[in-house]
Amino acid sequence: MAKNFTTREDNYSQWYNDLVIKADLAENSAVRGCMVIKPYGYAIWEKMQAALDKMFKDTGHSNAYFPLFIPKSFFSREASHVEGFAKECAVVTHYRLKASPDGKGVVVDEDAKLEEELIVRPTSETIIWDTYRNWIQSYRDLPILVNQWANVVRWEMRTRLFLRTAEFLWQEGHTAHATSEEAIAETQQMLEVYATFAEEFMAMPVLKGFKSPNERFAGAIETYCIEALMQDGKALQAGTSHFLGQNFAKAFDVKFLSKENKLDYVWATSWGVSTRLMGALVMAHSDDNGLVLPPKLAPFQVVIVPIYKKDEDKIRITEKALEIKKALISKGISVKFDDRESYTPGYKFNEHEFRGVPVRLALGPRDLENGTVEVARRDTMEKEVLQIQDIENKIQHLLDQIQDNLYQKALTFRDNSTHYVDTWEEFVKTLDEKAGFIYAHWDGTAETEQKIKEETKATIRLIPLIEKKEDGKCIYTGKPSTQRVVFARSY
Amino acid sequence: MAKNFTTREDNYSQWYNDLVIKADLAENSAVRGCMVIKPYGYAIWEKMQAALDKMFKDTGHSNAYFPLFIPKSFFSREASHVEGFAKECAVVTHYRLKASPDGKGVVVDEDAKLEEELIVRPTSETIIWDTYRNWIQSYRDLPILVNQWANVVRWEMRTRLFLRTAEFLWQEGHTAHATSEEAIAETQQMLEVYATFAEEFMAMPVLKGFKSPNERFAGAIETYCIEALMQDGKALQAGTSHFLGQNFAKAFDVKFLSKENKLDYVWATSWGVSTRLMGALVMAHSDDNGLVLPPKLAPFQVVIVPIYKKDEDKIRITEKALEIKKALISKGISVKFDDRESYTPGYKFNEHEFRGVPVRLALGPRDLENGTVEVARRDTMEKEVLQIQDIENKIQHLLDQIQDNLYQKALTFRDNSTHYVDTWEEFVKTLDEKAGFIYAHWDGTAETEQKIKEETKATIRLIPLIEKKEDGKCIYTGKPSTQRVVFARSY
User: How many domains would you assign to chain B?
Assistant: First the structure.
């Protein structure tokens, strides 16, 4: 695992791409825009899934599965949804191939043309609400609290591993409620779940808020979001939770009989996070030595590397290493004992460092004599020699420290990259020279937002959830404003 | 949950379909051949996934993810694979829709035609071996032990929920090895994993063997399989494990440098089970009262139903029920306390019986006085009144008993439905009157197998793994044979 990869300062974008590939997280495939998620990368995604899935279930949700394909006509049912989603997508037109007349390979069988084209789902509101129509008759059938783990496809022209790919993995929650209040409460609850996950598991601080109308989900009344700041000062939308009102219920005719015996349309929410979080995780903490993983999401938290020259040392060291491994596992710590014989300890050190293993233990003959072990932490690159006695509690404590340190470091970075500006000149200068989150006044119109975007590539990332009323003037038009919003350039 | 559904005797096929739909396992969707897996059904699938995933990881495998789409040309690379898979499949030809000229909805944008069509994966050997080419240089990179949980699409004309659907969920293991012996050992190991899973978790006895050439996976040298017997005497293939030789390595040019410094093609296996197992599970144990679930795969193993009329009773009963729930959970038993107020105890009894909850506890005022609880087991429909004291151990024991009883019952059924026949008349008669597994002699030719299939719809389900050499004559041609094979009609 060589360190011959770009530094962040040299070329941040290249650094990210190199890191994802060289740390064995993912790679491009033979299919344009579709990635292969490699075992090490997938193991991190599995940790994310497990943590999120537990949080979904703890808040009363169940998983289900809906079809990959959506009839084309479904997209036209909800007017704004079709605008947002039915454009760049994979279209299935035929259901059969046949031997090529020239005897070389296969060709599409034109006799097997579908009557109605099928779209590979870019998101599942339409097919799910078409299904819910049969599940819902009365208030007794509500709420429906369902989540789906699935692949989706959006035909992106410019793709980047994890951050923007044609196919990606995600979860999409789709809930149905009897009242507007209940649906809004659900939308907000799931935003909190996402924020908690980002901060406690990914060690990544996030801002919470809602989107301006321009940036809303196609078909939503309100889109709530969490936004994180990457090390290059660009924002990344890390999760969204949508209050859909009765839009999809109306589009798919989903009504229920209320307790008061009145027929009404059902209220909806949807919410999702995707493998994009993998990109956020990489960019939030990693450095010029490679990946840095928070202990709670690392495929293994500790690696033990044995160091020996003589065979007799090997036996004794292996014995001690397995003893340590067992002690750590008893505390619920995940451990890899790297006893591969075809690689040197130095090679292993570099590899695990590059792949972001939070803690490395090295065990040599001298350690056996002294009852010690060398402990290296990935986040600070610090090393110390510890007594093996009670090692499981020491390491557990250290892992907690690392998790906390990563969060604090990211928080400090964000604080230092958060700016309040009041004039257009200051805004443009800050964007170009400092980047980061910029709190500024905005006149509340879509036109102004669009013009700011065209001139600076910055967008309103969110309108803060907790309003801090403050009179001011729009940085672009000078018109009055009562609240600052958060601008940034973004992924 | 009414019992107004078909009995097995009346119409087995209808019974199955009614059961799947009325027990809330799955339903048909708006997309032909694609099903919706409902929360209760998906919860069973999640239990299956968890158990299998652990077994895969315990045998050294990691999960990864490969693209949903496969370039059309990939299928032509492996000659027999294209025959088997590149026919009935979903073909993506375009990547964009546009507003319809008549202003109504959206139409395919003919300007957005793909240069090469993409096939929605029916199985992933081709795209994975195209990827492995870059992962493998030397023997040090081997073995690769990777599994993928994914959706796949095969354009089936006649579909049945779980048993045969256009889209289904599955796992597909794809491994790469330095030697033929190692790959064969892997193939056999995974067959054992599947058999263990079927018997220990699904409580479903299976036969192990390998397929005749006719029934082999397209591209395999040898296909191993497990076969289970359903209650209507038809066989169901429950899992397959393929030794692929060097076929895919040759098709995708995947070579490695051996320890001896020689360049050779890599050896491959693939193995998979799918949501088809859900159909097998339903058919293996369920009865005319509804679903019967083995405790190890039930979404919840125990349901507690409170019975009261007065509010004061409700409080005391709820308290006791929660106490019991806590005691059961402490033993790792999953419990639902069904305290819904809008349904009567009778309705709840029926619903949980129909949905196959293994154990039901009913708790009324009289029970509180006596320190008792009524315990009903779903498999035998027996009820008894037990002292609440030590209830967690009693129920744990009962769940073990139920799991074992279901297996024994299915085994007895299979034993009684297994026949040895030596003549064609006997064969045809047994098939029509008794069905089940038929051990008979076969001359070993594809022609004879094909003719038997055409005349009787029976196929060779497998050639037993443990050879029992026995001289005999082919039931169809009278030619000599040295071993009986297993015939059956099948799903």
Answer: 3
Q: Is the pLDDT of residue A86 over 50?
A: yes
| CATH number of the domain residue A201 falls in | 3.30.930.10
Name residue, tokens 């940034």: A488
Claim to verify: residue B281 and residue B299 sit in the same structural domain: no
User: Which amino acid belongs to residue B465?
Assistant: L
Mutate to test the interface with B, among A97, A120, A175 (most CBs of B within 10 A): A97
* pLDDT, position A2: 47
The CATH number linked to A324 is 3.40.50.800
Which residues of B fall within a CB distance of 8 Å from A93? 91-94, 108
Strand partners, B92: A92, B118
Kindly tell me if the per-residue pLDDT of A22 is higher than 80: yes
User: What is the average pLDDT across A231-257?
Assistant: 97
A472, part of any domain: yes
Q: Are residues A404 and A438 in the same domain?
A: no
Q: Clarify whether residues A322 and A355 are in a common domain.
A: yes
Query: A42: distance to nearest CA of chain B, Å?
Result: 5
Nearest 10 degrees: Cα torsion B195, B200, B204, B210:
10
> In the prediction, which pLDDT does B5 show?
83
What is the C-alpha to C-alpha distance for residues B122 and B31, in angstroms, rounded to an integer? 17
Note whether B96 contacts A93, CB cutoff 8 Å: no
Are B134 and B206 in a shared domain? yes
B268 & B315 share domain: no
Residue B93 lies in a domain: no
Instruction: Return the closest-CA partner of residue B241 out of B223, B258, B259, B227.
Output: B223
Q: List the 48-67 stretch of B: residues with Cβ below 8 A of A.
A: 62-67
The predicted model gives A121-125 an average pLDDT of 96
Report pLDDT digits (tens) over A158-216: 899 999 999 999 999 999 999 999 999 999 999 999 999 999 999 999 999 999 998 89
Q: How far apart are CA B471 and CA B479, in angstroms?
A: 11
Report the gap between the CA of A107 and the closest CA in chain B (Å).
8
Q: Is residue B45 part of a domain?
A: yes
Whether residues B230 and B358 share a domain: the answer is no
Q: Which domain holds residue A162?
A: 12-285
- Pair (A468, A376) in one structural domain: no
Inter-chain residue contact B151 with A72, CB threshold 8 Å: no
In this structure, is residue A291 part of a structural domain?
A: no
**pLDDT (tens digit per residue) in A284-329:** 999 999 999 999 999 999 999 999 999 999 999 999 999 999 999 9
Token pair 């289900």 is found at A64
Instruction: Give the B window 155-184 contacts with A, CB below 8 Å.
Output: 155, 167, 169
pLDDT at position B3 is: 58
Contacts of A69 in chain B (CB under 8 A): 31, 34, 90, 167
> Rounded to a whole number, what is the distance in Å from the CA of B317 to chain A's nearest CA?
24
Q: How far apart are CA B152 and CA B169, in angstroms?
A: 6
- State residue A413 phi and psi, 5-degree precision: -60, -45
A24: left (phi over 0), alpha (psi -120 to 50) or beta: left
Grade residue A1 by pLDDT with cuts at 50, 70 and 90. Answer: very low
Identity of the residue in B45, B72, B92 whose CB atom sits nearest the CB atom of A92: B92
Give me the interface pTM, i.e. the ipTM.
0.96
Based on the fold, state whether residues B60 and B209 are members of the same structural domain.
Answer: yes
Q: Which among B132, B130, B168, B124 has a CA at the least distance from the CA of B148?
A: B124
Interface residue A140 vs chain B (CB under 8 A): yes
Contact A64 B37 (CB under 8 A): yes
Low-confidence ranges of chain B (pLDDT < 50): 1-2
- For the domain that residue B443 is a member of, what is the CATH number? 3.30.110.30
